[in-house]
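Entry: ATP-binding protein
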Amino acid sequence: MQGFRSSINLHFDLPNPKLLDRYVLTPSHCDVLNGILEGVVNTEGKHAHLLIGPYGTGKSLLSTIVCQLVSRKFSEEWRIRLLTQTERIDTRLADYIRNTESVGLTYIPVMINGKTGSFRTIINQAIYRALHQAKIEVITPNEASSILNVVDRWKQLYPDTYKAFLCHLEAKQVQEIEWRAHIESCHEEMTRDFISFYPSVTSGTTWMVEHDTYFIENLEKLSSELVARGIGLFVVYDEFGRFLQSLGGENTLQDMQDLQNLAEFVDRVANIHLLVVGHKHIRQYAASSRESIRQEFEKVEKRFRFYSLENDSSTFLQLAQEAIIETNTECLNEEIKLESVETLQNYTLFNEFTSYQLEQGIVRALYPLHPVAVMLLPHLSNIFGQNERTLFSFLSDDERYSLRDYVNQNKGYYYADQMFNFFSVGLAEPKDQPSLQLYHSIAPYLDSQMLLQRRIVELLTMWSVTRLTQKQPITTKFLAFAVGTGLEEIAVLLELMSESKIIRFNSIREQWELYDGSSIDLGMAVQSRLASTTLQNKEVMHLLERHLPMTYILPYEYNEDMDMLRYADIHFADVSELKVYQDGTLPADDRIWLIVYQDMDQIEDPITIMNEMTSSSLVAFPHFSVDNVQSSLLNFKVIDQLLHDSEFLSQDARLKNELTYMLQETSKHIQVFVDRYFAFHDLEWWSGKEQKSIVDLNELERLVTHRLRSKYNVTPHIRNEAFNRNRISAIQRRALIDVIDHLIQQPREPALGISGYGPNYLIYATALKNNDYYIDAEGNVQCNGTLAEIRNALREVLDSKPIGKLSDLIGMMKSPPYGIRSSVIPLLFVALLRDRWDQLHLFANDMLISSLSGASILEIIELSESFEYRYYNWTIEEKHQLIELGGYFDLPEETCTSFLLVADALLQWLRSLPKFTQITRQITKDTQRIRDIIRSSEVDPFTNIKQLATYGHLLLEAKSELEQFHICNEHELERQVLKVTGQTTLLQMFPVLKKFRNEAIGKNSKLLTLSLSEEGQGIIDSMAEQLVGVARTEWSDATQDLFIGQIKYEWELLHSGVEISASLDKISDHNVPLSKKSQTLYANVKNMLKYAGRDISTQEVRQLLVKLLHEL
């Protein structure tokens, strides 16, 4: 057999007839050949083909073989050799190969290998070069022929231009003959040089090739001419991915359009075929591009017939058998001992093969390759090599560590661990392979004197990297088989390696694995903590619940019938806890108790325990105790504590990983114990005081269904799974708020006034409409039996307990027999009590929640523990009183239907009055009481409005007094001002002020600042704001007293000049010496005025002194 070559080049290997010697036809290759040759033999077949596959799967080799076949380059013997190989695998393909001889066309292979640039230029150049090399004279649509034609025209018609061209070639040190040869072979550098030179002799005209403009049209002309000569073209574009990766500029869409046009064109003509070869689909090269580019790539790909070369086990074995045949024949002639088929069948390596296939296809045909190596080889080749290419290299070449190299130096089996060096696994990048990282951590600690130790580590590394642990766990027995040693020898070595923390036996997965353990003796650390650690009953239950395989049971039958999700949760408990358990608000709809006995002496008769219980629970009594797993529970607690001990973990970075593994191992033992509760045969089941027979999970689900049907027999039927649950999405929540708002505002509108068919309408339809909910003409709620029962229960609570916690009503709706979901409760709460809504009020800390909306109701019900409800049922007489009350205050008739509306209206009326009116005491006692009652109705509208209604005609008087107070107060203030000033009218006061203003030298009375233009209406209000600084509407009684006092002072200030002057004269006539105390007082007053009054004007300081003298 010919030696293996690592790669195939279409241009160089096409003329090689010996290429077939190393070709192995596989089923996947047959599919490709069938598709291509169908188009060659039958003109109606597909001519555009796309071949993809990973590196090393033989794409280029297959493409070369196809070109050799259709071009008829070799003798009949070559074709017969290919036909012989084909007849063993695919008779249909053999017929196609025979029929290729009768095809009246001889194909010229057109080879393109990873070329980039303009697609139409690449195709034109490749066709020109192929025809030129085949010495077929045809005018081809190509840039090279255009260049040569232009130069020939210059030579004949434009000698000066031709002479300039020759000078250019001379400067480049190139002869014309040599230049022509380069152009004919489409030499890129020479072509670009000519294109750059062309404008210099054509007055700046740029080079253009008209053939590129008419790409497909020119190919049609070429096809017609070639058909007439009995010639066809077989275009192979290898490494097409390089071309696709180079796209991204402005010509991307044009190139893809050309590719699409070419694919469609070759399917229409009989003598041109196109085979595009790459590593992945065309569309995948545009995955990160914009939408228009991705669509263009997808559209182009659909024009091709697609083939994929994949690696599978049967293909691998076939290729391996062909590649190893010489080595196998040579080694089988020696005296050997083969592995037995029986031994091989003990492992899950080749379950898909029969005994005969194992013996003939693996044990004998692939010797000296060990069966474990046979399993490992294709996976290693895929990860660290190039698939079939590396496979052939390993089996047939003499490279270091290859199979041939081993056979030349050794006898016997080539074991799997020896491939570690051939694939250079130890040198691979470990960043993507955790197992390699682990290997590099362990490798320095391996004993160089113990070769078997290193072999085991290398095998474990490769087995983990290739993820074959899922197919065949690495057990002690399998390791001995894989490395060819005795079971006892390897068991001793594994124990030593385990003690050194190089490997460990994973009891969870039941296999050996690489392990980089810490430097801490964890066994000793755990034992030292066990001595001081105890386990309480509650901790035992908690740890057991952490290992439950399922934490709840779904009653599927019940949930399907009711279109909702209910479940029963599962909890462990000891007998003492169960006896004192009281039914409360469970997070689940039902509970399943799994009894835990601390020891066998604790076991009691279940009927005795169930008779002592007050609740009808579902309980499982075991026939075993927790005693045998107590140590594991204690270990679990200690290891878990160590995992959360940051000081302990800081000793070694590997401790956390090691402790996690120990916790998992301990957890497995606990899990085995917990699983006994779900084997059912070792349990005695009781539902209330009735024993049940439960043999599997299905029966348990049916029992839970039966219990829930009995427990929640008045649950409303709401076919809306997205809404009928405890937690709903934001969209459903917004829809629910909208429905509640419509219930409050438009209860009598059809469909509550909801328009459209969105989530809000669906909630209304499923929860209310489908349950026959509506409000009749008299304003009463009507609904079907289930909702009617819930409504009657709510009404009974309101009638019997008018004041109470809101949580009592909500809890009743959540509890059996209703069991309404949290999201549904706000809707039904409002809907079922809508006809009593005006009489039902919610309070927080004795404060009424006056404005209720959908959003606020949801929040209130979620926090129902903090709220109180009060239900007020008015008598007919009280309703008449309410109407009469509204009449006194001129309230609309529709407002008088609710005391809450009346309270709101009266509060609005009161707040519309001036603030002075709302707080003054200058009104009658009855009016004060009526005003205070109205104000208090904001907190307790029912009690206060009811009290207010008893005042009768006094309400009218109070209303009038309050509305007239502001005017009456103005008259009273005018009277007092006139009394102070001694004037008859306010208008008479202004001439006096004007006189003082003219003489006001040294006077600073604020009355002098009053504008003369204020001598009309509103004089009192102007004086009030001027003297006090507060508008009269915002006054209080104290402000009024301040105003009167200020008037007195300011008026006296105007008349104080003469008196003060006389007093000063009198003081200066009697000059009295100052005592020490007087001098101290003088100094203090002087300093205070000097420093404290530095920001006060001199005029104000003087005014202050005058005022002091006046008062003294």
